[in-house]
Design a protein that fits this description.
Helices cover 47% and strands 16% of the residues. The longest helix has 53 residues. Helix 1 packs antiparallel against helix 2, helix 6 crosses helix 8 and helix 8 packs parallel to helix 9. The strands form 2 sheets. The protein has a 6-stranded mixed β-sheet with strand order 6-7-8-3-9-10, with helices on both faces. The chain has a 4-stranded antiparallel β-sheet with strand order 2-1-4-5, with helices on one face. The protein is elongated, with a radius of gyration of 34 Å. The two termini are 34 Å apart. Strand 7, helix 9 and strand 8 form a beta-alpha-beta unit. The protein has 367 residues and is of the alpha/beta class. It folds into 2 domains: 102 residues; 236 residues, Rossmann fold (3-Layer(aba) Sandwich), CATH 3.40.50.300. The structure holds adenosine-5'-diphosphate (ADP) and magnesium ion. The site of adenosine-5'-diphosphate has 9 residues, from helix 3.
Length: 367
């Protein structure tokens, strides 16, 4: 991006400014720090010299109430006190430095996890009936992002969300695995509020394929087997075949042992997405969350992956967000979202007949 927008100069300047500020601050600190030692040494020596001279004069002229031996004794004690006193002032400096760091570390250590785990979680090992969103309202900061969401997803059905970007679709599906907590209302799985369940249990029921495929700098094998313990190569291959990823994986140098670079940087967008679909296939969860899972694919591979996804969706409960409406025609219910609200809902044909928001979206996409 920096190169493409010819912004090297701008960023160099930003770096130089920051660097210069750091240099000046460090110089100031070091100058004082380095000066402190010789200065205190000098002051200490001057004090001793003055004491020696003044005390010496008093004793030699016999004006003093102590004798020479006692005076030397006194000098030795005074001299041994100087060093600890200097250390004390140095400690003050270190304490201040430590406090500044503590403040920053404390911010992280004391950060509160806003999701509270229930103390006595109810148990859930399988998903049997349905998911309910009841009067759900949600906001990240001040503005409501979701309002009055009421939605039921019966087991085995597919519910699709459509709507322009920023409508709140991703936010809505993020509430289900409890990445965020609802602000008002509740979400129930088989009639149990998800706040009463262990988040680990909830998430083990779900598989996500996201808009942005999140991959790790690791091998194909480890990226696909990510959510499953002790997966075998056969299982991973099987999943990759269903996701139409097997062929391009085998075409790489080390096959499944090839590393894919940071966040999958050595792959194309479509390949990345197919890996994350294979990951979901391998996990084999009862609930599937697809957030624009095919958006990074070209039309041809989308067709292939669409087949894979349809196989994956069979006998499964699916919450799917799609920007291409052709992919969700067969959904059991389509919810059209706009500005955080569900404005239309129904089957494809019903929504077309309604001649509203959905119809407009649909017309825009068909030539
Ligand atoms: N982490 C976040 N913090 C604050 N606001 C957010 C965050 N994520 C999304 N939003 C806002 O919430 C709204 C809905 O976003 P999103 O659910 O991603 O929309 P969609 O998936 O439908 O395109 C947007 O206005 C967006 O700016
Ligand atoms: Mg989104």
């Amino acid at each position: 991006m920096i190169k493409a927008f010819n912004a090297e100069k701008k960023l160099e300047k930003r770096f130089a400014t920051l660097n210069e500020k750091l240099r000046r601050t460090l110089n100031r600190i070091n100058r004082r720090y380095m000066l402190a030692h010789p200065l205190s040494e000098l002051l200490g020596t001057i004090v001793i010299a003055v004491l020696l001279w003044f005390g010496g004069v008093l004793i030699l002229e016999n004006h003093s109430s102590i004798n020479a031996a006692e005076f030397i004794y006194y000098l030795v004690i005074f001299y041994s006190i100087i060093n600890p006193a200097k250390d004390l002032s140095k400690a003050g400096y270190s304490v201040q430095k430590g406090l500044a760091s503590l403040e920053r570390v404390d911010k992280i250590l004391k950060a509160e996890n806003t999701l509270s785990e229930p103390t006595l979680p109810k148990e859930i090992t399988s998903f049997n009936e349905r998911i309910d969103f009841k009067n759900v309202n949600f906001r990240y900061q001040t503005d409501w992002v979701l309002q009055d969401i009421n939605l039921t997803i019966p087991k085995g059905k597919t519910v699709a969300l459509v709507g322009q970007s920023g409508a709140g679709k991703s936010t809505l599906v993020d509430l289900l695995p409890r990445f965020y907590d609802v602000t008002e209302g509740e979400i129930l799985i088989d009639g149990i509020n998800i706040k009463e369940l262990n988040t680990k249990d909830i998430r083990s029921l779900m598989g996500n394929v996201n808009q942005e495929a999140i991959l790790f700098n690791d091998t194909f094998f480890n990226n696909i087997a990510f959510g499953v313990e002790n997966a075998t190569l056969e299982q991973v291959m099987e999943a990759a075949k269903i996701a139409n990823a097997h062929d391009f994986i085998m075409a790489t140098e080390n096959g499944y042992e090839t590393t894919i670079g940071d966040r999958g940087s050595k792959l194309s967008g479509g390949q990345r997405q197919r890996i994350s679909i294979a990951r979901a296939i391998l996990k084999n969860p009862p609930i599937l969350i697809l957030d624009e899972a095919t958006s990074a694919l070209d039309t041809e591979s989308e067709k292939m992956v669409q087949e894979a996804i349809e196989k994956l969706m069979m006998n499964r409960t699916t919450l799917v967000i799609a920007h291409r409406l052709s992919t969700i025609k067969r959904a059991d219910e389509i919810c059209v979202m706009s500005e955080g609200k569900i404005v239309e809902r129904g089957k494809h044909d019903e929504l077309i007949a309604l001649n509203g928001y959905y119809k407009r979206l649909y017309d825009m996409q068909s030539f």
